[in-house]
Amino acid sequence: MTIITSPQDFNTDDLYVDLEPVVGNTLFLKVEGLNFAGSVKLKAASAMVEAAEADGTLRPGAILVESSSGNLGIALSMIAAAKGYGFVCVTDSRCNLATRRLMESLGAEVHVITEPDPEHGLLGARLDHVRDLLASDDRHVWLNQYTNPNSWKAHYDTTGPQIAAQFPDVDVIFIGAGTTGTLMGTARYFADHHPHVRIVAVDSVGSVSFGTPAARRMIPGLGMAVRPPLLDQTVIDEVVHVEEADTIRTCHRLARTGFLFGGSTGTVVTAAEAWLAEHATPGTTAVAIAPDLGERYMDTIYQSHWVEDLYGDLTADTDDTGAFAAIAA
Length: 329
Ligand SMILES: Cc1ncc(COP(=O)(O)O)c(C=O)c1O
Description:
Elements: E1 16-18, H1 20-23, E2 27-31, H2 41-54, E3 63-67, H3 71-83, E4 86-92, H4 97-105, E5 109-113, H5 121-136, E6 140-142, H6 149-157, H7 159-166, E7 172-176, H8 181-193, E8 198-204, E9 238-242, H9 244-255, H10 263-279, E10 286-290, H11 304-311, E11 324-328
Parallel strand pairs: 2-10, 3-4, 3-6, 4-5, 7-8, 7-10, 8-9
Antiparallel strand pairs: 1-2, 9-11
This protein binds pyridoxal-5'-phosphate (PLP).
């Protein structure tokens, strides 16, 4: 039996889905969405809040402010409610309605930015708004998920060791890159303790994180419009970019096996499947990280009109195998 008093006290760090029947190679998918925040971002949010409390930055009466496209915002809404802090989440028009409602239900104030900064896009406009908030009220505290080292340290202390303990023979790990907290913490853990394990970063086509050109991206979670400050490519072996249409196809395919995952999981599994089809040898053990589940995407990835409007008819037979592109890190 597990009894908790605060929602952040519960997390599942040892659940994996065997995806061999789906992808045809040995692939274990680490499920990070089974906690009260519903995503991997609970780890970063808890670590950043605890560190800020410990160093005195975060005191009773404080109001957290953060720029988030969703999942970190939900995790911080939950922790702020549990600990009695205020929270203002600065997001943009790509934030799912369900995500926004979730944050508001947990007591957060949500500011939706609709006008991109001419040079730095929606993210730039969001960060400007955060700076304005900080200047307007000295109770505001910005943990800054884009630069806060406690975000990657959370994964160095939990995700990395957990995978190593469960899969001592792991050969390759596929990790999606947003702020790159998950990627950096896990990659650094393996670089320090099991350097032979191959780390494959997964990003969306249209993200500039690894130096490829910007383009439209509609699925939140992975990808950045600016280079992620936390990113250190020396601990990554390879990068795979995935088209959003392929992400959606994979989400739908997984859903038809009974597993409803979020968009970034579709992206990571697409990359892993393609990579393993090319590189796996008998006995290759692969792990991929699934950042959240699918319920948050009912109005987007799992809504046929939204999908058709943006990507056309994805059920049409296509032999478009140029959909994923691998580049050396
Ligand atoms: C659904 C989802 N996937 C992946 C990520 C990327 O995680 P990270 O910011 O640690 O790179 C996020 C981050 O918000 C997310 O919400």
